[in-house]
Amino acid sequence: MPRITLPPKRLPFADVEIEFATRVFLSPHPQYAWNEIIEGVEVHFHDGRVENRAVMMGSSARTLRQARPGPSAKEVYDRFFLENPDATLQQLSEVTDRNQLQQLCNQWQRLIRPELGSLELSQLSSYGRLRRPIDLYLMHLIAMSTEAESLRKALVPLLFVPLDKQSLDKAFTKEELRDSGLPPRSSFGNIETEQLYLEFQDALAKRARRMSGIVSKEVAPIYFDLLWRDRDKRVGGNLFEASPMG
Predict the structure, then answer these.
(1) Predicted TM-score (pTM) of this structure
(2) 243 in Cβ contact with 60 (< 8 Å)
C-alpha cells in the first residue's frame, strides 16, 4: 500500500491558532469530573448559552447504527469508560509512547467489540468505525477531566486524531486517499484495517513534527482536530466550549 505523501495539504497554522490549541488541550478551564464528560455536563458559553454536552452526542452518536435490540453503541462505550476509571487511569499512567497507547487502545477495542451485538454486522468489520469512539473518549477525558490532570502533559502529544470525513478531507488530497485505496470524501467507516488507520495517523504525526519545526513550537497531532474544525475561531477554555454540536 503506497505511503501517504508530504508536505501537508494546508499551510502551517498561525501562532495564535497554535497557542489557542495548546491552551485548550494543556490548560483547560473549566475542567470537569470524568463521569460528567461521559454522561453529560452543563457547559456555560461566553455568549450566555447553557447547553448539555457529552463525548458521544449528535452525529458522533448516530454513526454506529443499531440493527437489532440491545444497548446502543453510546451505551456500550459510556459503560466501558465509566465502569472503572481508576483502572483506566492507571493503565494510561503507564503509557510512555504512541506504540504503547496503540496497544492499549487495541486491548480496549477487543473488550468493547463483543458488547456491540445490536449493531449492523457490516459496521463491526471496520477497524476505523470501532476505533473512532475510543479516540474521541480519550481526547475529551485527557483534555478536560480533573482526574487526568497529572497525566495531561505527557499524554496529549501521544493522542490519536479521531478520524472522520472532515479530518480526512482536510488532511489529505484526493490523490492521497486514492493511493491508499479510498474514494474521495471517505470517512472512518472506509478505514477497514489497523494498518490503514496507522498509516493515516503516522502521516499526521509527521506533519505535526514538521510544523513544530517551522513554528518553533510543539504542535501535537491532536491539535489538528481542534484547528481543522475552525474551533479556534470560537472562544472557550476547553474542548466543549470550543466545539460545535455533533
Answers:
(1) 0.90
(2) no
